[in-house]
Amino acid sequence: MKLNPLADNVLVKNAQQEETTASGIILSTANKEKSLICDVVAVGPGTEEHPMTVSVGDRVVVGKYAGQEIKLDNVDYSLVKVSDILAKVE
């Protein structure tokens, strides 16, 4: 399934990966806070008031409580407004 953001929305994926022990056990991330650094997966076309300033593949910093969390094909994403993106990571 593919999700195409509309207007000034941006689909981002948490940049942190699951933590795994040396023996291969995946540690729970349920109690961890949402990462502020995310990878841009898809972008909407933008609006006159909010032109798109990010592209697919950019690594960005988003506000801690920004966006709507979405689970798609067992992967967690967030759908955020372009105005909720605070910075690009270079």
From TrEMBL:
InterPro entries recorded: Chaperonin_GroES, Chaperonin_GroES_sf, GroES-like_sf
Subunit relationships: Heptamer of 7 subunits arranged in a ring. Interacts with the chaperonin GroEL.
Gene of this entry: groES
Superkingdom of the source species: Bacteria
Protein's organism: Candidatus Avoscillospira stercoripullorum
SMART domains per record: Cpn10
One Gene Ontology molecular-function label: protein-folding chaperone binding
Predominant location: cytoplasm
Pfam families in the cross-refs: Cpn10 (PF00166)
Subcellular localization: Cytoplasm
Family as reported in the entry's similarity comment: Belongs to the GroES chaperonin family.
Function in brief: Together with the chaperonin GroEL, plays an essential role in assisting protein folding. The GroEL-GroES system forms a nano-cage that allows encapsulation of the non-native substrate proteins and provides a physical environment optimized to promote and accelerate protein folding. GroES binds to the apical surface of the GroEL ring, thereby capping the opening of the GroEL channel.
Keywords (A to Z) from UniProt: Chaperone, Cytoplasm
UniProt name for this protein: Co-chaperonin GroES
Cellular component, GO annotation: cytoplasm
